[in-house]
Amino acid sequence: xxxxxxxxxxxxPARRLTAVLLAAGIGALSPGVTAPLALAQPSIPAxxxxxxxxxxxVDGGMFPAASDQPDKNYVQEIGCVRRAELDDNVVLPNxxxxxxxxxxxxxxxxxxxxxxxxxxxxxxxxxxxxAVIDTGVTPHPFFQGRVEAGADYVKNVPPGPGLEDCDxxxxxxxxxxxxxxxxxxxxxxxxxxDSTIVSIRQxxxxxxxAQEDTAQSNDAEDPPAGDSEKPGDGGxxxxxxxxxxxxxxxxxxxxxxxxxxxxxxxxxxxxxTLAQAVAFAAKVSGVKVINISINNCRAANGIITDPxxxxxxxxxxxxxxxxVVVAAAGNTGDTCKQNxxxxxxxxxxxxxxxxxxxxxxxxxxxxxxxxxxDFSVHGPWVSVAAPxxxxxxxxxxxxxDKLANRTVEGNGEPTPIQGTSFAAPYVSGVVAxxxxxxxxxxxxxxxxxxxxxxQHPAAxxxxxxxxGHGVINPVAALTATxxxxxxxAAAQPVQLPSDLPPTHEGDQTPMIVxxxxxxxxxxxxxxxxxxxxxxxxxxxxPT
Length: 543
Known about the structure:
By secondary structure, the chain is α/β, with parallel strands linked by helices. It is built from 11 helices and 17 strands. It has helices at residues 2-9, 13-40, 97-101, 104-115, 169-178, 271-282, 306-320, 424-437, 443-452, 474-479, 509-538, and strands at 74-76, 82-83, 129-134, 147-152, 196-201, 207-209, 246-247, 287-292, 296-299, 324-328, 349-352, 361-366, 384-387, 393-394, 403-404, 406-408, 414-416. Helix 4 runs parallel beside helix 8, helix 5 (169-178) runs parallel beside helix 8 (424-437) and helix 6 packs parallel to helix 7. The protein is elongated. The model is unreliable at 1-41, 213-246 and 248-255 (pLDDT under 50).
């Protein structure tokens, strides 16, 4: 300690020597310090027109070409998700916590009372159609035939475009929206169990681009589902070793972290085909909701790519066609850093399509504490939030009539299903209920109703970058009076008074007069006593 103090307080030559050594040390370290800082700087600063918190205006000239076909030839290299051969009598009787948290069954009763007995159908009996752009949807018995073939950007195989779900992701998502188990022992239900799903398979991590030298053999039969000798996905959405994912009673497909990214070299699905899928869904007759539980996350650099422009144009077009687009906010991972930087307006990561918040309901995930899940990507574009952990939904294995709540990873350990992918369909289901009860509301009004009736966070304006306008409230979304719909000014957040009584600022004049009077009296008394004392002292002595 004494030596350090000597260096700090040294005078003359010692002080100069210390300064020289400090400068030399900084100079030696500066190449290693400044390089990472330079690399961390955005390529286009925000104050010079870089696009960060908000994207540029929609470029109508970038609308994607109409297509419902794969962008290249893909071959299946990993067997489809399958169910383990365990006790088939095992069921999941409990209701998912998210279903109870959102009071879904109460919302369904309200919907049925307003539409003549339907939860997800108009009073005419026509179902609300929800397009699910994902990994496909297996026609599970709990859909009761309410899944329609849409398009397939991976490979068109039986039973029809979009009706094969090798990855097991899309079926889980669709189940949260529209499943309707008839077994009274099962507590799980989809949010809008009378709605119809239009399945559009846009991506798959079990299908890989065909090699050029094997292009001529791509018409050979795909490996039978579940019989692949190839290593499995590893269960976390990333290529890896281990067996194919096994779906056991009470288990499900891979959890949704770090997310299903577009444009991976060894998987099917790009931002361009996602844009084409949105454009296709918007033109399907009757579709009023589009659920997108897959997205693309990249480092923010101030620019917008051409594929992103095409996706933005497609989303905007769907919005103008009176379709509500619901998208998962995204999950953190190696390629998707959390937006925890100091300036929220200059995020580290950009997630599309949530970035296009003017035309998208972007959904964050909460856990059972009611707080935002640690994997849910933050951002200025987050609209609302919904449950995204400990998910129960349909078992996606072919020919299964069971439910799922876990996935068996490559290491054989069961893992709960979670991700913003599974928060988004809760919102899509509520949107379907709202559209059925309020058929005259356009997409903008429906989105506003979902936001304005959410459980707002304690933040300026009732919104933050974690849960947006708050956790959705399905009962309020179906019953609340929204001022804008009645031609009134929008409700404004106000600061509520505390429980303490207000301070009393009384009139001080009486007190001042009283003290002045008392003071005056004392002065008068003092003068009187002084006069009397003086008179007595000066009075002549009697003779």
